[in-house]
Design brief:
It contains three helices and no strands. It is mostly helical. The radius of gyration is 12 Å and the shape is globular.
């Protein structure tokens, strides 16, 4: 079984909440037919591909200022 270290993911996002939101949004995009920004390799599920993209720094969390 392939694993992406949680520590790597947390370094990229800064919080578990941001990680969950980012992974969910990216997974939805992949489910809608967007192309992966990384080679899926042995990862088959879109959730795993989204996490791999985050770990590789290819997907970023951006906070919009709504002032």
């Amino acid at each position: 079984m392939l694993e992406i270290p949680k520590e790597e993911l947390m370094k990229k996002t800064g919080s578990i909440f941001k990680l969950a939101v980012l992974a969910a949004k990216r997974t939805a995009q992949l489910n809608d037919g967007r192309k992966p920004k990384t080679e899926p390799g042995e990862f088959k599920k879109n959730q795993a591909i989204a996490l791999k993209e985050i770990a590789e720094g290819k997907i970023h969390f951006s906070e919009k200022n709504r002032g």
